[in-house]
Amino acid sequence: KAVFILFFSLYDINCKTSHIDINVIGCKSDDPVAQDEAQLDGDEMFYADFDKKEMILTLPAFADSFGVDPGWVQGAIANRQICINNLEVAIKAENNPPENTDAPVNTIYPRDEVELGKPNTLICLANNFFPPPVKVRWTKNDVDVSEQATLSRYYPNSDATFYQFSTLSFTPQLGDVYSCSVEHKALPEPKTRIWGEERLQVAVAPELFC
């Protein structure tokens, strides 16, 4: 199994400040799903949804609006096939080399400042792994709640590794303990991170002593 990634960079010289426009194309030998996305200065602008055959805008609502050339979708579909063909050629040329792997580094943290009884979101970030993707399992007080969580697409880092995050809506209560466990082929066993009562006590300490 292998991943073949192409990076195309274009430097914008029409502005006083230089910008980096990157088109990232990726495919896997064991997965027909490919990746095609556009970035500007490290921020994703849009990506190809091959099932819907359309480009999905991902910039926040407050960013300047822009449109995507309709021809980009057909270009993304063509690039996917080129990527797969190049990958097959590369595997044969290298005599089916072993796959390089990098284990993910994962962290768990709340999206907003924690207040008891106030709805919030826990984020489990898996970063710097290769190849994609990862699997994430959530528990609350040792009970599996993974079905209540969401898992993002995987995104490329500048060093050709990837990151991916999972979110879980929750209402903080003293005594509750949450965990997220990340599975990846480079890990001998899932890597688990805990978020729970001790951090809640620290977070609400100023209110308790007012």
Explain the overall architecture:
A five-stranded antiparallel sheet has the order 1-2-3-4-5, covered by helices on one side. The chain is globular, with a radius of gyration of 21 Å. It has 210 residues and is of the alpha+beta class. It contains two helices and 14 strands, in the order βββββαβββββββββα. The protein folds into two domains: 3-94, Class II Histocompatibility Antigen, M Beta Chain, Chain B, domain 1, CATH 3.10.320.10; 105-205, Immunoglobulin-like (Sandwich). It has helices at 71-93, 197-208; strands at residues 3-12, 19-28, 31-40, 43-49, 54-57, 105-110, 120-129, 135-140, 143-144, 150-151, 155-156, 162-170, 178-183, 191-195. It is found in: Membrane. It is a single-pass type I membrane protein. Pfam families: C1-set, MHC_II_alpha.
Spell out the CATH superfamily of the largest domain: Immunoglobulins
Number of strands: 14
The SSE order reads EEEEEHEEEEEEEEEH
Helix/strand-derived class? alpha+beta
Distance between the termini: 58 Å
> Per CATH, what is the topology of the largest domain?
Immunoglobulin-like
CATH architecture title of the largest domain: Sandwich
> How many separate domains?
2
| Strand percentage | 35-45%
Domain Ig-like: 98-184
Family: Belongs to the MHC class II family.
InterPro entries: Ig-like_dom (IPR007110), Ig-like_dom_sf (IPR036179), Ig-like_fold (IPR013783), Ig/MHC_CS (IPR003006), Ig_C1-set (IPR003597), MHC/Immunoglobulin (IPR050160), MHC_I/II-like_Ag-recog (IPR011162), MHC_II_a/b_N (IPR014745)
Membrane topology: Single-pass type I membrane protein
